[in-house]
Amino acid sequence: MTNQYLCFDIGGTNLKAGLLDANGGQIQPATSIPMAQDLAAFWQQLFDIADQYVGQIAGIAVSVPGQVDPQTGIVYHGGALPFLDQCPLQQTLAMRYQLPVAAENDGKAAALAENWRGSLQGCQNGLVLVLGTGVGGGLIIHNQLYRGSHFQAGELSMMLAASTAAPIKITGQTGSAVGMISAIAHELQLPDEHDGRQVFAALAADDPKALEMFNAYGHQVAQIILNVQAVMDLNVVAIGGGISAQPSVVPMIQRQYAELLEQLPMIRDTLSQPQIVAAKFHNQANLIGALAALLGMATV
């Protein structure tokens, strides 16, 4: 039997697909296309890709936003893609291709990947904080994935942002890496507001306005970490998402977290603090974690 698996990472901005082996190793580089914005176009995207691998794969693994029932593979709400609400993702793919299929929430997939072979390997209590279109999260509690009572543990985008200004914002807005890139690009009057390379080039050149906005973003992320730490008492927080591959990101968040504690001495002197590290797999974590779910690594 073939030892390769087709893995999808369904995101709010892009759809990625790649072939992985049973150890999570990349067989061929993942491809990425703009994400469809309606259900019919979404299915067509998946079918167009999967049809190319009929007879060549042992299963299909899917990471997707929203709340996912791990038994049925039905997606609820759909996160940044509301048209996926009540989508029978697992059943539809399994019936079409007659293969084992697993669907997993994107934040939980990232946590599974890091717990399986990454920065949370051997960690008793940890969090993968995924900075992308929104803020994803996956919790490892007692060295196992924690889903919660309604499959929604780790939905960090739904937390209220630490602000008294109106209108009320959620952390999915204030902690959005895509939003941060767009805001800095707009401020710098770049021709493409999604050009992360140009934004990080400006940061590397110490552009004062870009640095100010970058650090303000890190402050928002640090607040998210501190709020989760007060509730969960974690050992490690791994920063994930494509932005985490930039070498300046995690040190900046570490500095912002330390500065936040200096402003809050009671919390600094009372709470044990987590180690803040870079996730190992960056923007490949969801593909690897979806495979981990398919292979039975998810146990809670």
TrEMBL record:
* One protein family per Pfam: ROK
The keyword Kinase is annotated on this UniProt entry: yes
Give the UniProt family note: Belongs to the ROK (NagC/XylR) family.
Q: Look up the domain of life of the source.
A: Bacteria
Q: Which UniProt keywords apply?
A: Kinase, Transferase
Protein name, entry field: Sugar kinase and transcription regulator
Q: Where are the transmembrane segments?
A: none
- What terms describe the molecular function in GO for this protein? kinase activity
**Organism whose genome encodes this protein:** Lactiplantibacillus pentosus DSM 20314
